[in-house]
Every structure is written in structure tokens, then in C-alpha cells.
Design a protein that fits this description.
Largest sheet: 3 strands, antiparallel
Bound molecules: carboxymethyl coenzyme *A
Distance between the termini: 65 Å
Number of strands: 6
Structural class: mainly alpha
Strand order of the largest sheet: 1-2-3
Strand content: 5-15%
Order of helices and strands: EEEHEEEHHHHHHHHHHHHHHHHH
Helix content: 40-55%
Length: about 450
């Protein structure tokens, strides 16, 4: 495989300038404070247990930085998302997915020659090992495509032995290109398998997004003419989902790889985590919710349910752990939804009307305002994907294929850091203390 330059990233260099004091049982400990290039300062507690014999407690990682990174930055209050410093709205309007992949992986915007090499590398690795194609047939026809993707991506380690040695930077790069190149093929095949149609093999003469659309919608009896506006909208969906710093699936990939597991196993773990409805599964759940609401007159009923503490129902596509303002990706997707639906002549789609009215009703409601709950990326993406012809079960697979580059970039950053340690959280144990075993006849 041709090579681009794959420089190792060594991230945290700054010497701490400040300290924080912690007083415990009359003793004071000085803890280094590290200042990032953006975002809040971080108290370095790595030596705290050794010095003070205490752990910190933060289930859900609401106040804990689990790593240092140079890839993506989110300012949740401003609703800002930057990849290597570049704002997502600029990338969505001026760049395209494979250029953003290069940016995330290599740290800078490519020069023309670099982009050409990268695109050619990805384009020439889109086919799957033919034996892998047979693997799909082991799944039931009614399997969810996410289940198939988790299994097939995990199985890549059984097919691509020459890119599983994580200590070899060249093998890491080969694995990365393979994953980015093959993920659309895997997602499209998972889709074709569940609808009972023959697999459509990739074509190298069309762009990444068009190729994915064609693999999903062409059949041997009839080729699929890719509309450039739909291809652009697809590419934008890929771009908007490419990375999102230390979210649950990315942290899963990092934790899995901290043990030295091979890249395919780690990405399969990320896909499995993404599937949950609180994470990537929310796009499917959101469209199902909009369909269930059905007409605008039922919106107040669903808003009331979302606010009811005794009802587990939540407004899908609303709220975010980090954004306390509108998710910048949702803004771009709202515009894209209008464009795509107009192109397809379905601008009066009742579900789009429900979505817009629901958004307006929630934003005007004090409950959502007080809790700073705004539409997130999943709110409009499903409407676009459905209009393109995808069933709801394909929404999360499309998220997974888009996020693959983010997982890989974070994995690459972590593996190349000489300070990498296996991830091993501590716990606040609240169970029984040591007690003697009781024989069964005495219980
Ligand atoms: N509808 C109604 N109430 C909500 C919602 C919602 N969608 N989201 C949060 N809340 C309430 C929640 O009940 C809680 O209220 P209280 O403080 O009275 O107990 C408060 O807001 C804070 O919620 P939280 O669950 O503590 O916040 P979190 O940061 O742990 O959860 C979230 C973030 C995204 C899981 C959550 O907002 C949610 O479940 N949203 C719906 C699912 C969704 O759209 N997920 C996609 C996230 S973006 C894409 C991705 O990351 O994959």
C-alpha cells in the first residue's frame, strides 16, 4: 500500500503552571493544574491515590477528562464544534468527507497531492475479501444491520492479519485506510442482506458518498443514477458525524484499545456502543417518535410526557451531555433537510412539519429552556435519510460508517502516545465486607 506520512502524535507537553490544594483529614495536597489550549483547566489527580489513599468519584465522567487530545474541541455553551481547529459549519459547506477524514487522521488540511493520494488509497480498498461476503449469509435475514456490522467488522481481524499489529505504525495506517474504505461496503451489504437483494459491489470511478448510495440502491436489473444533490447531502451527513471527541463509543474504542486489542476488535466495540438509543441509536428512535406523533395536534401530549418525571419517555433528538446550546450539526442538517425534501418534491412531508413544530414547541417551553435541552444531530438526520429511501434501521449504521474515522483518529492518537496505559477505572465499593462462606445446609 502506498504511504502518506503517518506521524506519531505526542500530545500533552505543557508543564503545569498552577496547582490546586486539597485538604483531607488535616493534610493538604498540592495537585498540578494543566491548562488546555481551549476549554476548562484540568486538575491532574494521577498521583492522588498514591499520596492521599483516596479515589475520585465521577460516574458518567461528567467532570473527568479521561485523556488528552488534539483532534476535536466542543464548546457546549457556545454550540461550537472544531476539528483540528476548523469549525464544523465551514467544513460542512466548503470541504467534503474524505478531506475531513484526512484532516482528522493527519492533523492538517491536505495539499492537492496529499488529498489525491489519500482518496486513491481509500478508493482502492473498498472491496471486501470475497470470503467475508459469505459471512453475511450466517446472519438471519431479519437481523438489525447494526448487529451485522458489529459482527462483520469484528471479523475483519480474521481476514486482514497483516494489519493487526498495533506496534507497527505502517500496519496501523493500513488498518485505518481499510476501515474507512470498507465500512460503506459493509453497511450497504448489511442493508442489502436484510432486504433480500443481491450485494452490489463498489465502484472506483465514483465518489465515496455516491458509491455508498449506489451500493444501497442499485440492483443488478437496474443501475442507480446518483443525483449529485443527494450525494452532496449524504457526504454532508458523513462529515457532520465524523468525530465528536470523547463520547461513549469513542471512549469505548479507547478503552478497548488500551488493552492492546487489534483495531478491528476495537472499532467493533465502538459500533456496539453506538447502537444504544441514548447515543447513535437516537436517530432511529427520533424518526420512530416523529412517526408516532404523526400530526402536529399531538405535539402537546408528547411534550407533556417528556416533562413527566413518572414517564420514562424522552424527546429523542433533544438534549446533549456537552451542548447546552443548539448542536451546530443540527443547524446544518435542518437546512439540508429543506434542500433534500424540496429536491425530492416532498417539502410538505408531514413528518418534517411535525419535527419543525415540535422543535419550536420545545424551545418555547420553560422545561427545555431551564434544562438547556436543544435539538441535537439526530433530530433532522433521520428525516433526510428517510427521504433518500433508507429504512430507519439504516440510520445508525450510517452514523457508524461516518464515525469510523473519528474512532480511528482517536485510536491512532492514543496508541502512538508513549504514555499510554491500560484504562482501569476504580470504584466506590458499597457491597458486603469480607465474610465467611456458609455451607448450603446452614443457609
Ligand atoms: N427529553 C426530556 N427530558 C430530558 C431529555 C429529553 N430528551 N434529555 C435530558 N432531559 C432531562 C432529564 O430528565 C434530566 O432532568 P432532571 O435534571 O430533572 O433529572 C436533565 O434533562 C438532564 O438529563 P441527563 O440525562 O442527566 O443528561 P445527560 O447529559 O446524562 O444525557 C442525553 C444526555 C443525550 C443522553 C439525554 O439528553 C437524552 O437522553 N436525550 C435523548 C436521546 C438523544 O437524543 N441522544 C442523542 C445524543 S446526540 C448524538 C450522540 O451522542 O450519539
Amino acid at each position: 500500500m502506498a504511504r502518506l506520512y503517518w506521524e506519531d502524535e505526542n500530545v500533552m507537553t505543557d508543564k503545569p503552571q498552577k496547582t490546586a490544594s486539597l485538604t483531607l483529614d488535616g493534610k493538604t495536597y498540592e495537585l498540578p493544574v494543566i491548562s488546555p489550549t481551549a476549554g476548562p483547566d484540568v486538575i491532574d489527580i494521577r498521583k492522588l491515590y498514591a499520596q492521599a489513599n483516596v479515589f475520585t468519584y465521577d460516574p458518567g465522567f461528567t467532570s473527568t477528562a479521561a485523556c488528552d487530545s488534539t483532534i476535536t474541541f466542543i464548546d457546549g455553551d457556545l454550540g461550537e464544534l472544531l476539528h483540528r481547529g476548523y469549525p464544523i459549519d465551514q467544513l460542512a459547506s466548503k470541504s467534503h468527507y474524505l478531506e475531513v477524514c484526512f484532516l482528522l487522521l493527519y492533523g492538517h488540511l491536505p495539499e492537492a497531492g496529499e488529498l489525491e493520494t489519500f482518496e486513491s488509497l481509500v478508493t482502492n480498498h473498498t472491496m471486501l475479501h470475497e470470503q467475508m461476503v459469505h459471512l453475511f449469509r450466517g446472519f438471519r435475514r431479519d437481523a438489525h444491520p447494526m448487529a451485522i456490522m458489529t459482527g462483520v467488522v469484528g471479523a475483519m481481524s480474521a481476514f486482514y492479519h497483516d494489519s493487526t499489529d498495533i506496534n507497527d505504525p505502517h500496519q496501523r495506517e493500513v488498518a485505518s485506510i481499510r476501515l474507512i474504505a470498507k465500512m460503506p461496503t459493509i453497511a450497504a451489504m448489511a442493508f442489502k442482506y436484510t432486504v433480500g437483494q443481491p450485494f452490489v459491489y463498489p465502484r472506483n470511478d465514483i465518489d465515496y458518498a455516491s458509491n455508498f448510495l449506489r451500493m444501497c440502491f442499485a440492483v443488478p436489473a437496474e443501475d442507480y443514477e446518483v443525483n449529485p444533490i443527494l450525494a452532496r447531502a449524504m457526504d454532508r451527513i458523513f462529515t457532520l458525524h465524523a468525530d465528536h471527541e470523547q463520547n461513549a463509543s469513542t471512549s469505548t474504542v479507547r478503552l478497548a484499545s488500551s488493552s492492546g486489542a487489534n483495531p478491528f476488535a476495537c472499532i467493533a466495540a465502538g459500533i456496539a456502543c453506538l447502537w444504544g438509543p441514548a447515543h447513535g441509536g437516537a436517530n432511529q428512535a427520533c424518526l420512530e417518535m416523529l412517526n408516532e406523533i404523526g400530526t402536529v395536534d399531538r405535539i402537546p401530549e408528547f411534550i407533556a410526557r417528556a416533562k413527566d418525571k413518572n414517564d420514562p419517555f424522552r424527546l429523542m433528538g433533544f438534549g446533549h451531555r456537552v451542548y447546552k446550546n443548539i448542536d451546530p450539526r443540527a443547524k446544518v442538517l435542518k437546512e439540508s433537510a429543506d434542500e433534500v425534501l424540496e429536491l425530492l418534491g416532498v417539502e410538505n412531508n408531514p413528518i418534517l412539519q411535525v419535527a419543525k413544530e415540535l422543535e419550536a414547541a420545545a424551545l418555547a417551553d420553560p422545561y427545555f429552556a431551564e434544562k438547556k435541552l436543544f435539538p441535537n444531530v439526530d433530530f433532522y438526520s433521520g428525516i433526510i435519510l428517510e427521504a433518500m429511501g433508507f429504512p430507519t434501521s439504516m440510520f445508525t449504521p450510517i452514523f457508524a460508517l461516518s464515525r469510523t474515522v473519528g474512532w480511528i483518529s482517536q485510536w491512532k492518537e492514543m496508541i502512538s502516545d508513549p504514555a499510554m496505559k491500560i484504562g482501569r477505572p476504580r470504584q466506590l465499593y458499597c457491597g458486603e465486607v469480607a465474610r465467611d462462606y456458609v455451607d448450603i445446609e446452614n443457609r
